[in-house]
What we know:
Elements: H1 8-17, H2 20-23, H3 37-66, H4 68-75, H5 79-107, H6 109-127, H7 133-161, H8 167-195, H9 199-219, H10 234-252, H11 258-281, H12 289-294, H13 296-312, H14 315-326, H15 331-358, H16 361-380, H17 388-417, H18 422-452, H19 462-489
Helix pairs in contact: 3-7, 3-8, 3-9, 5-6, 5-7, 5-10, 5-18, 6-7, 6-9, 7-8, 7-18, 8-15, 8-17, 10-11, 10-18, 13-17, 13-18, 13-19, 14-15, 14-19, 15-17, 16-17, 16-19, 17-18, 18-19
Amino acid sequence: MFAVGRGCRYAVILRRAGLWGVLTASRPRRYPTSMSSSIEKGHGWLLVAVCTSLFFMPFMMAGVNAVLPPLGQSLNASARELGLMGAFYSMGLAVFQLASGSMGDIWGYRRVFLWGIALFAVAGALLGFVHSVPLFLVLRFVQGVGGAMFNACGLALLASAAPEGRRASYLGYSGSSVYAGIACGPPVAGFVAGWLGWQWLFWGSALASVGVLLLMKYRVKLEWRMAKGKPFDWKGCLAYAAAMICLTFGASELASAPALAGGLLAAFVLLMVVFCVKELRSTYPLLDLRLLARNRVFALSSLAAFINYTAFFGIVFFFSLYLQYGRGMTVQQAGLFLALQSVVQVMTTPVAARLCGRFEPGKVSAVGIALCGLGLVVSGLLRVDSPMYVLVAAQCLLGMGISLFALPNTTIILESAGRDRVGQAAGLTGAVRTGGQLFNMAVITLTLGFYLGSEPAGTHNIDAFMGAMRIDLIVFGLLNLLAVGCALARNRH
């Protein structure tokens, strides 16, 4: 830290570099309504680069889910393999979220961000040329790894750059970008797949990622690292990665190979025990388990996030297939309808920010969780001939719920962790989100395997598909309601 007493000359230099607000953020001070032009300029390019990258991470999840039917036909993929396409992407995210936060702490958030966006771009470019399901799954995993790196370090960059009192605003921009990505994913992917082919969904994201990489490299020169010189926990990283891989494949094989699945799930438990022991002994762990034990707010907020994301993220997958096979919509029509939920999310995010200014953020997030649970239960009660207003109501409930939950909960996690653990907290935030996605898709893959076997979903087996969808969404909805207790209990003394 630079002291103010060093003199005006140092202050002027720091202000011109855009660093003054960062270096003095730990001191209580009042900021003017409008930031200085130098800070606005420096942080403006940073916000553009980070928010654009955060847009594409969920965009590729929601977009691929929306074009699963033509993608499955092109690759001749089964229903189980279609589920694995989302699971592998989520697995890449989940495996490297913790590692990416710690890497950013040690080597610099901007540097690791650049590595991640480059990896994301290369994998996306190659995916458009693939005609093999196994190779497609591998590249989706690699793309998820890149997404994990720029997601964790992007959040850490915003949290580190934000002046005192403006962290929620900066994170609000990032949250709006995520929801915009979810909103644009289905309709854009639908139109692109219908007019140009599903390959251009990946090629377009690769080109946009290259643009973000160039912007960050040449227009953003600010860098932060909170643990320079600390050793990276490679053993913990490998143990955690192996555990997530065992969990994914174990869950996916429960229906077809119970013995193999049991062995993989047992390996998952063993590896998680090894990971926890290693983290407790590490001088600079990927995940500070003691922080989870000591910090009630941090722990319960992370648990609430995991439950919520576990319950929520399968909705686009189910609705995409339901609308096309059950309701007879084209891929473009389904994409436009799926955008409703995320449009509501984008519109509600500023409302969530204002509510957090008037009410306790934990209570706002609890209301959001409850709305998500209600929306999931309503979605689980749908039939093939259900009125359209029921579908619209379910989408609106889900959209409002996730926006009211995500912004305050993420802010609470990062604030409660402390400034010296920003990277780890951002990594954990991404890990619980993507871990929830992974668990969600693993459950969906398992359920579809029981109901459909190796057959792809279609109009001929829509009743079986609806049975799997109904069970999963109702269970997820009830599970999501349990997270309300976590959100309310964290503030009790």
